[in-house]
Amino acid sequence: MVVPAFNEAHHLPLLLDSIELARQRYAGQADDIEVIVADNASTDGTAHLARTRECRVVRVERRSIAAARNGGANVAVGDVLAFVDADSRIHPETFNAIERTLASGRVIVGATGFRYDRMSLAMWIQFVPATVLLHLARLDTGVVFCRRADWQAVGGFEEHRLVAEDIQFQTAMKKLGRTRGQRFGRARGARTLSSARKFDRYGDWHYVTNAFRAGRWLLTGRGSFAGFIQRYWYEERR
Length: 238
Fold this sequence. Notes:
- By secondary structure, this protein is an alpha/beta fold.
- It has two domains: 2-204, Spore Coat Polysaccharide Biosynthesis Protein SpsA, Chain A; 205-238, no CATH class.
- It has helices at residues 12-25, 46-52, 65-75, 94-103, 121-137, 148-153, 165-178, 197-202, 206-220, 222-234, and strands spanning 2-5, 36-39, 56-59, 80-83, 88-89, 107-111, 114-116, 144-147, 183-186, 192-194.
- The strands form three sheets. A four-stranded mixed sheet has the order 4-8-6-9, with helices on both faces. A three-stranded parallel sheet has the order 1-2-3, with helices on both faces. A three-stranded mixed sheet has the order 5-10-7.
- The two termini are 25 Å apart.
């Protein structure tokens, strides 16, 4: 499992606890589950904490979550790759669900889906339409997984993309899969718990308000939009 992480010393222990529980619940050998923390130039104790938890740590200097995902995948030794954000907690049945989903050979890429660790009415109003769109597009997030050979075949994640790199990756994988009669698959019953920290910081309606702001910045110039991306996704963690 590959965990891209920038200054995630606060959230990482919860994720690693959940991974350890899922490793113990895995029907195969727990030692077959390799945990790689792709330290994306952190300035806090992320790397040290990961090492104390017996994770493999790889340093990725390029500040891009796509580069961090690829950096972790590059050193992985397993045939199956799984990617999860450091501020998440995976379901105890995650590894069993991934194995079941890939077993038939008909799935080229998949995801577990997710829910937030807290919800409000405003969040539900924004979450439901987004979830419906993802399902209609046969895309999802949470833990994203695939076979290592297929990740290599599409060239991994596009590192110049600072956002939505997981959606682009799944789209590329699905395109490859269509040439083989393969498709996207959901790992049922193993939804990932994702942090609602951006809602805590920016407000429960911030998806709506930021959509209007992003549209305005796109109209006024790419520099303004790039600044928004940097502030929202790549600023110092609090």
